[in-house]
Specification:
By secondary structure, this protein is of the alpha/beta class. Helix 1 links the parallel strand 1 and strand 2. It contains ten helices and ten strands.
Length: 217
């Protein structure tokens, strides 16, 4: 597939590197190409020559699948910059969590209970096929799950479009995930986003982000 990854941080780079490794054509979107290249992107890009860099709209325009790998508060502005027309009809894999660091660490959630960031994205871009996934584990496990328990742990997908969820599930399986659970429509993203408080506390207690949950059934 042609994949646009919106976000140049740890998550965006992990997804871009893995999808390129698997043979996809990948462009990473950024607000300012020159500023990104002047930062630490150059060193990373040297090791990943197959990954292109473009402004959000250009990255998204030719994509089959778009990945939202931005921070939660940056998701809607970034997607607006990508453009509603460029997103129309496309599968959007939303990995972001609505974390609020205004009161320090650990962060709270800025959206919860009767709404979710994924739902807000879907309402804002109704022609886009939003699928929430991968937001419940660290970037390295998102893309290389078999380093932990041989991949015997669970990930979730939420979304209103069955074919879009199938596309995302197939991508996750190609990463090495063995237990992809379809939770249902986009409102079920409330549950996975609200897993973040316990995830953060487990991280603090265990001293490592290399852990995940397994749904035993």
């Amino acid at each position: 597939m042609r994949i646009a990854v919106l976000g140049t941080g740890v998550v965006g780079r992990a997804i871009a590197a893995r999808t390129t490794e698997l043979g996809h054509e990948v462009v990473v979107g950024t607000r300012d190409v020159a500023a990104t290249r002047d930062a630490d992107w150059g060193d990373w890009a040297t090791g990943h020559p197959g990954v292109a860099l473009a402004v959000h709209a250009d990255a998204t325009a030719g994509a089959d699948l778009v990945v939202n790998a931005t921070s939660g508060d940056g998701s809607l502005p970034t997607l607006h910059a990508a453009g509603a027309e460029n997103l129309a009809g496309k599968v959007l894999l939303d990995i972001a969590n609505p974390l609020d660091f205004s009161r320090g660490f650990p962060p709270t959630l800025s959206v919860l209970n009767d709404d979710s960031l994924a739902e807000r994205i879907q309402r804002t871009f109704p022609r886009t096929r939003v699928v929430k996934a991968l937001n419940t584990l660290t970037a390295d496990l998102m893309t290389h799950p078999r380093q932990l328990g041989g991949g015997d742990h669970s990930v979730f997908v939420s979304g209103d479009d069955a074919e879009a969820k199938k596309t995302v599930a197939e991508l996750l399986i190609s990463f090495g995930h063995t237990d992809v659970i379809d939770l249902g429509d986009i409102t079920t993203a409330r549950g996975t986003e609200m897993l973040m408080p316990i995830w953060l506390r487990l991280y603090g207690r265990l001293g490592t982000p290399l852990f995940n949950v397994k749904v035993v059934r």
